[in-house]
Structure formats: C-alpha cells, structure tokens
Amino acid sequence: GQQVQQSPASLVLQEGENAELQCNFSTSLNSMQWFYQRPGGSLVSLFYNPSGTKHSGRLTSTTVIKERRSSLHISSSQTTDSGTYLCALEPNSGTYQRFGTGTKLQVVP
Amino acid sequence: DTTVKQNPRYKLARVGKPVNLICSQTMNHDTMYWYQKKPNQAPKLLLFYYDKILNREADTFEKFQSSRPNNSFCSLYIGSAGLEYSAMYLCASSRDPPPGAGNTEVFFGKGTRLTVV
Predict the structure, then answer these.
(1) Rounded distance, CA A10 to CA A104, Å?
(2) How many CB pairs under 8 A join A and B?
(3) Cα(A67)–Cα(B64) distance, rounded to whole angstroms?
C-alpha cells in the first residue's frame, strides 16, 4: 500500500491565512524531507527534519516519529506560496526515499 | 556549492529517437538518483547509483539506462522515446552510508522537462 499519504490534496487560502499540511506514513523512517515544487516543476528543499520541530521564516515543520506523521505549517500565507508541497521519507527498511502525492496550495489575494 | 546541475532545462524529442539527459554535482556525494515527475503524480524513482553500482526499479528496468563515469556525473538515457516519456526528469544526490542506514538528506536539481512529439 501507499507508504506516504499527504493531506489535504488541495487547499485554497486567502492571503494572510495559515495552513497546516500533513504527511502520514505507514512505515518506520530514517529521514523526512519537505519540498516545494515550483509551478515549472523543479523541487526546492524546505526542511530536512527526521524528528522534532524546525523553523524557517513563516514555515515550521514538525515530525513525530512515534505517531508516524509530519506536518508543515505555513503562517501568514502569501500568493507566492502557491504551488505543490511534497513530503518524502526514507524508510528504515533498506529502500530509498519515497514521495507523497503532494498538497496543491493556492493562495489568492 | 550544494547545487545539483541538470542539462538541458528543456528537451524536445521525436518519438522513437534517443534522449540523453545530464546531471552533475560537486558535493562528492555517494548516491545519485533519477526521478520522473508527471503532473499530479508523486516523483517516481527510476534508478540510482550508489558509488559505481546501478540500481534500477523493477518496473522501469528496461526503459531507462544510466551511466556514471565518475563521482560527479550521471546521465539518464532513453533508447527510443515514446509519448509516455514526456515528463519532468529530476536528478538528485545524497551523501549516503550503505542503503537504508538512514539520515539521508537529498539535494535536487532544477530538472529537465522532456517533451516527446
């Protein structure tokens, strides 16, 4: 089955609103990474966060290993935040990084 | 320099013709990966090199080839492109211990958008 589930699949925000994106996984993990995919398709790494909480500007990532979830919080959203957010994990079962299907975020003025 | 470089950024190919995509990194990373990304789908791992050892995913085994003549360089080769190969191709690298040992931060290039007509 799907090892990495992201929710919601899509989200529309008014500029200034906050968002919480979820990544749930069905396997034990070695690493967790959040990416932002630009409309053109390239991936930008936002956080490498195997556990705990990390902050970067308006973004916060929290990974709780025992609950098998990771979240990405976007505060005070801006129209430039629009795009697709992907989480990816490396299972500790000896296979390489696996991606979720992403959350498509649209922030409107 | 923590960048992974991919060339070209855009590639147009004819059905049935070969395609060669290029990736390089100067971080002395052990592992280099190739992913295929189509709209509304998760990136799909096609293959990876750990050092000089090539690992190809079972369902893409015969469709894609790769070479890694040195630590910094990795190519993705399609022998005969089909319409279904149109996608973004993402190269990535990581400094790895042996597979599955953990704590693997992955760095991605900007991708090559391949359009097959």
Answers:
(1) 4
(2) 71
(3) 37
Summarised one tens digit per residue, pLDDT across range B42-73 is 888 899 998 898 988 877 778 899 999 999 99
- Helix, strand or coil, per DSSP, at residue B51: coil
- A31 and B41 within 8 Å at the Cβ level: the answer is no
Query: What's chain B's length in residues?
Result: 117
Residue B62 CB contacts under 8 Å (≥ 6 apart), including other chains = none
Report yes or no: A100 and A23 within 8 Å, Cβ to Cβ.
yes
Which residues does chain A have within 8 Å of residue B111's beta carbon, measured at their own beta carbons?
40-43
Instruction: Output the CA–CA distances (angstroms, integers) from residue A75 to A3, A11, A44, in the order listed.
Output: 28, 14, 19
A40: tokens are: 């053109």
Residues 6+ apart with CB under 8 A from A19: A11, A13, A73, A74, A77, A105
pLDDT of A42 over the 70 cut:
yes
Cα torsion B43, B116, B113, A77: sign:
negative
Return the bridge partners of A20, or none. Answer: A73
Measured between beta carbons, which residues in chain A are less than 8 angstroms from residue B45? 96-98
Specify whether the CB–CB gap between A32 and A50 falls below 8 A: yes
Could you tell me if residue B110 is left (phi over 0), alpha (psi between -120 and 50 degrees) or otherwise beta?
A: alpha
Per the structure block, which two tokens stand in for A70?
């990771």
Spell out which residues of chain A touch residue B33, defining contact as CB-CB under 8 Å.
96-97
